[in-house]
Amino acid sequence: MTQAQLAHSTAISGFVDSLQEPRTPYISPKRLSQALGVKVANLAQLTGVHRNTLRNPSSERLQGRMREMVKVISAATELTGDVDKAIYWYRNEPIADYGHRTAAELIADGQVEPVLAFIRDLENGARG
Q1: What is residue 7's predicted lDDT score, i.e. its pLDDT?
Q2: pLDDT at res. 4
Q3: Using an 8 Å Cβ cutoff, are 75 and 118 in contact?
Q4: Domain count for the chain
Q5: Which residues of the chain fall short of a pLDDT of 50?
Q6: What element of type H or E holds 45?
Q7: Phi then psi for 127, rounded to 5 degrees?
Q8: Which pLDDT value is given to residue 21?
């Protein structure tokens, strides 16, 4: 593993660790919303769940959707080398191949694999 890869891996691990609900194995909706720079109420829209679902952080549907978000942000962090840049891209950068929708919009609609494929294509283009 190169020094850059190690730094990216450490950044991703620190990001993921910072999202843990204290004393639980869950992602904290509050901490994820803070990391994304949105209100907790807006997290429901970003995760594609009903706002009342946020009252139950251990909800499997909510946790699954938040894991998908974290997976995409982690993959984008590997590409950009910076968690903040990855989050900015996730929330704001329109993806032309997907109707100029952002990764956040696509993930809210449950389209995780197309976004991960897009990131892989960027990685392969950047490396190839």
Answers
A1: 59
A2: 57
A3: no
A4: 1
A5: 128
A6: helix 40-47
A7: -90, -30
A8: 87
Angle made by CA atoms 96, 101, 102, in degrees to the nearest 5: 105
CB hemisphere CA count around 51 (13 angstroms): 5
CA–CA separation, 126 vs 128, rounded Å? 6
Handedness of CA 21, 108, 122, 113 (dihedral sign): positive
Domain containing 71: what range? 3-127
Q: How far is CA 44 from the centre of its chain?
A: 14
* In the block, residue with structure tokens 């919009």: 105
Residue 100, CB half-sphere, CA atoms under 13 Å: how many?
A: 0
Q: Which long-range contacts (CB under 8 A, 24 or more apart) does 54-59 make?
A: 54/29, 57/21, 57/24, 57/26, 57/27, 57/28, 57/29, 58/24, 58/26
